[in-house]
């Protein structure tokens, strides 16, 4: 089966500019996650969707970050305006929601964002 | 809220030697535990997971981990490593059927010839 797709793979912007990332999960996966991975750290969950509803966005900086999953399939994460500290790899993951599978997540390759 | 500690940020080991990567967690409820591997410039890949049942879990590429509830640990082991095992390894925990998924800071395993 096809994996989680993300684009772009790399993005360089200047601070105060806007940027958007796109993710297409594995077909049939109801749950979609966005993570931020700063160099040298583990991924930090930004937002979790179940179909097109938000399950957890407690760590999303809502003054500048937004995300949507309008049709319950692909998703977009936006940063507006970007700050230097937003430089990171943004990972998208999806899972088939089922307790017997322990919510195993499948990850995309990530988008590496550099803010200058 | 739960948390994950990986005490070793870097572990160098010679090829064919055994290795153990340590993971400890804290949580007030029952948890699911995971180990993920991240090869250079690639996404995360699941190595193994503990949901319930046997505390010794076997994963891909010859890795295994043991869940110890009393010590709140989930250490990852491999009896003989290869150069290709060089990567970043992340321990993760979730509760409530997959909610509140938290990753540890990672351990960089470097296998030396």
What is this structure, in a nutshell?
By secondary structure, chain A is mostly beta strands. Chain A has strands spanning 5-7, 10-13, 19-24, 31-37, 44-50, 53-56, 65-68, 75-79, 88-95, 106-107, 111-115.
Structural class based on helices, strands and sheet pairing of chain B:
mainly beta
Our count of helices of chain A gives 0
Q: Overall 3D geometry of chain B? A: globular
Largest sheet of chain A: 7 strands, mixed
Greatest interface and its participating residue counts: A-B, 27 and 24 residues
State mean pLDDT of chain B (0 to 100 scale): 91
Give, in order, the helices and strands of chain B.
Answer: EEEEEEEEEEEE
- Specify the structural class of chain A: mainly beta
How much strand content do the residues of chain A show? over 45%
Write structural notes for this entry.
The complex is a heterodimer of chains A (116) and B (113). Chain A has strands at 5-7, 10-13, 19-24, 31-37, 44-50, 53-56, 65-68, 75-79, 88-95, 106-107, 111-115. Chain A is mostly beta strands and 116 residues long. The mean pLDDT of chain A is 91. With 113 residues, chain B is mostly beta strands. Helix content of chain B is 0%, strand content 56%. Chain B is built from no helices and 12 strands. Chain B has strands at residues 3-5, 10-14, 19-21, 24-26, 31-38, 44-50, 56-58, 64-68, 73-78, 87-95, 99-103, 107-112. In chain B, the strands form 3 sheets. In chain B, strands 2, 5, 6, 10, 11 and 12 form a 6-stranded mixed β-sheet that branches. A 4-stranded antiparallel β-sheet of chain B has the order 3-9-8-7, with no helix packed on it. A two-stranded antiparallel ribbon of chain B has the order 1-4. Chain B is globular. The termini of chain B are far apart. Chain A binds chain B through residues 4, 31, 33, 40-45, 48, 55-56, 91, 93, 95, 97, 99-100, 102-110, and chain B through 4, 32, 34, 36, 42-46, 49, 51, 90, 92, 94, 97-106.
């Amino acid at each position: 089966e096809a994996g989680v797709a993300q684009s772009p793979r790399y993005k360089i912007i200047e601070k105060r500019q806007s940027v958007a990332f796109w993710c297409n999960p594995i077909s049939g996966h109801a749950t979609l996650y966005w993570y931020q991975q700063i160099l040298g750290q583990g991924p930090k969950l930004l937002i979790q969707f179940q179909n097109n509803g938000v399950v957890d966005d407690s760590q999303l900086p809502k003054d500048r970050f937004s995300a949507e999953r309008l049709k319950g399939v692909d998703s977009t994460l936006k940063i507006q305006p970007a700050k230097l500290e937003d430089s990171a790899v943004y990972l998208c993951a999806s899972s088939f929601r089922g307790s017997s599978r322990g919510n195993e997540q499948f990850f995309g390759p990530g988008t590496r964002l550099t803010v200058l | 809220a739960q948390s994950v500690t990986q005490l070793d940020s870097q572990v160098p080991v010679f090829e064919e030697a055994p290795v153990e990567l340590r993971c400890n967690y804290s949580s007030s409820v029952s948890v699911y535990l995971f180990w993920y591997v991240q090869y250079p410039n690639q996404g995360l890949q699941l190595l193994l997971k503990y949901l319930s049942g046997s505390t010794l879990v076997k994963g891909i590429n010859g890795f295994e981990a043991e869940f110890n509830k009393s010590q709140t640990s989930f250490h990852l082991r491999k009896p003989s490593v290869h150069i290709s095992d060089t990567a970043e390894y992340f321990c993760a925990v979730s509760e409530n059927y997959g909610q509140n998924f938290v990753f540890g800071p990672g351990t960089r395993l470097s296998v030396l010839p």
